[in-house]
Amino acid sequence: MSNSRRNFLRELAGSVRDVTAAAQPTAPRAPEPEPEPLEDTRLERYSRQLVLPEWSEAAQEALARASVLVLGAGALGSPVAMYLAGAGVGRLGIVDDDDVELSNLHRQLLHFTPDLGVPKAHSAAAKLGFLNPEVVVEPYQVRLDAANAAGLIEGADLVVDCSDSFETRYAVNAACCAARIPLVEGGVLGMSGLVMAIRPGEGACYRCAFPAPPPDAPSCATAGVLGPAAGVIGSLQALEALKLLTGVGEPLTGAFLQCDLATLAFLRVSVQRRSDCPDCGGAYA
Amino acid sequence: MTRTLDITDLTCPMTWVKTKLELERMAPGEALDVRCREGEALENVPRSAREAGHAVSVEGTTIRIVRA
Predict the structure, then answer these.
(1) Which residues of B lie inside 8 Å of A (Cβ-Cβ)?
(2) Cα-flanking dihedrals φ and ψ of residue A190, to 5°?
(3) Per-residue pLDDT tens for B20-57?
(4) Whole-structure pTM value
(5) CA A149, CA A187: separation in Å to the nearest integer?
């Protein structure tokens, strides 16, 4: 076990004790349950996905070996990171340079009122550790940009973009295309959202589908967003991530899903690779 | 050679989880004898195994599954 993992687990154990003490200040300490064999505990944790006919032990092992980078620990990143941690992804990197604010809490499920002012990457890592201590969670309190993108995504088997800016989307798309790392894109604004799975070199990338950002795109702060609307898109991103990591199901590659969350009209739009795409066009010709 | 699996101490969904994973590790045509308790497991494991396409026969509380 590496030092960082050992320290992480030690911190986690400490924080679990603190939370338990705070929640039950006068309750007598329950006797420690006999630890079950690791194998059976793991099987039980993942049993409801293991019983799926489409799922298998091989799929579970593929997840355990996988390293996933989640960009953003907000409205999309919360369900993405929670579902991936719950499903048993081996390593989760959480990239976010913001602190938790009161206006985040209606939609960002990983953060709670006592977390106000705490860096989101660390707040998220603590909750994910409670959810599944088997997962190694690495918080990165930075913002991905064109300069650091290649370094941040290096070593990842998959990147899930849960950021809220077009600048970040294009930077991560270019970096993932260059490193041939699969990417799940997502975005939500007002009552509409979008999801897209990308396997660089095998279909359209994000820039093939959207060569330029929309002019005067409003931000989440000015357009507003309902929590569950973001939750739907984040959940779809998590689902696409699990498909890409395990080979189970059919990921949404070569297309994007446009979601009108006001009417629940979902439109699957096929997109072709562009030979002149600056991100993926020349790379695999 | 017939493999054996004892799931008498387990409850749903672990009864089928253990059986399904054992079947995944076997070659097509291999047989697995699953020992279980009366009740839920004896009802559900044969049904799940049949739904997964395997050949199933039950004798008492032993379920024989031949992997598809």
Answers:
(1) 13-14, 16-18, 20-21, 24-25, 48, 51-52
(2) 60, -125
(3) 999 999 999 999 999 999 999 999 999 999 999 999 99
(4) 0.86
(5) 19
- Nearest CB to B13: which of A48, A56, A57? A48
What would the pLDDT profile of A159-213 be if each residue is shown by its tens digit?
A: 999 999 999 999 999 999 999 999 999 999 999 999 999 999 999 999 999 999 8
DSSP string, chain A: --HHHHHHHHHHHHHHHHHHHHH-SSSPPPPPPPPPPHHHHHHHHTHHHHTSTT--HHHHHHHHH-EEEEE-SSTTHHHHHHHHHHHT-SEEEEE--PBP-GGGTTT-TT--GGGTTSBHHHHHHHHHHHH-TTSEEEEE-S---TTTHHHHHTT-SEEEE--S-HHHHHHHHHHHHHHT--EEEEEEEBTEEEEEEE-TTSS--HHHH-SSPPTTPPPHHHH-B-HHHHHHHHHHHHHHHHHHHH--S---BTEEEEEETTTTEEEEEE----TT-TTTTTTT-
Gap between the Cα atoms of A253 and A182, Å rounded: 10
Low-confidence ranges of chain A (pLDDT < 70): 1-38, 218-221, 282-285
Q: Do A50 and B17 touch (CB under 8 A)?
A: yes
User: CB–CB of B25 and A56 under 8 A?
Assistant: no
